[in-house]
Amino acid sequence: MTMPVSGTAAGRFLDRVLNVAATISRAGVWACGVLLFAAVAMIVAEIVLRLFGSSLHGAHELSGYVLAIVTSWGLAYALIEKAHIRIDVIYMRLPPRLRVVLDVISILVMALFVIVLLSQVQELLAGTLRRGSTANTPLQTPLWIPQMLWMAGLVWFAFTVFVIAARTVLGAVSGEHDAVARVWGNRSLEDEIAGNDHSRPR
């Protein structure tokens, strides 16, 4: 999937960056799928072993880490694919110019949320490293390991948000309303039904 490259030089550059981000995010989703499949296999093995009075000793803990990591790494891909739930009953009935204004506001609010989120996550990881915290489980997993992998996914999500925000604001300022709709605007009902949304990267 590639994002159509058009508009100003800065716009074309940001479109290329988004194409790269989409490729990396897709690869990350595939890797997370493999990781999730491994976690499911581990849980199934744990269930079977318990029938015979044995255990893997840590399947529940590790599967929890996997769930958190998979979630954080899936956020960027969901953002690019516009897979997050949006309520657009009013939005789709507004004129294009007003849609662009709402698109700019929404992506800037999301960027602000990501900044606050990363600041809190950074403090959590810093505290874990400072205290040398380990899980209160038989595995005694150093918590910085799953937290670092989880935070890496959130950092990539933040990078994607900032690139989309930059492209959206640039498109709004330069009058490229089609670019704003393509990158960040809501998908129409017709696009959802047809499954051929021009605004999604290909």
TrEMBL record:
Residues 40-167 form the Tripartite ATP-independent periplasmic transporters DctQ component domain. The chain crosses the membrane at residues 27-50, 62-80, 100-121, 148-170. It is found in: Cell inner membrane. The keyword Transmembrane helix applies. It is a multi-pass membrane protein. Belongs to the TRAP transporter small permease family. The complex comprises the extracytoplasmic solute receptor protein and the two transmembrane proteins. This is TRAP transporter small permease protein.
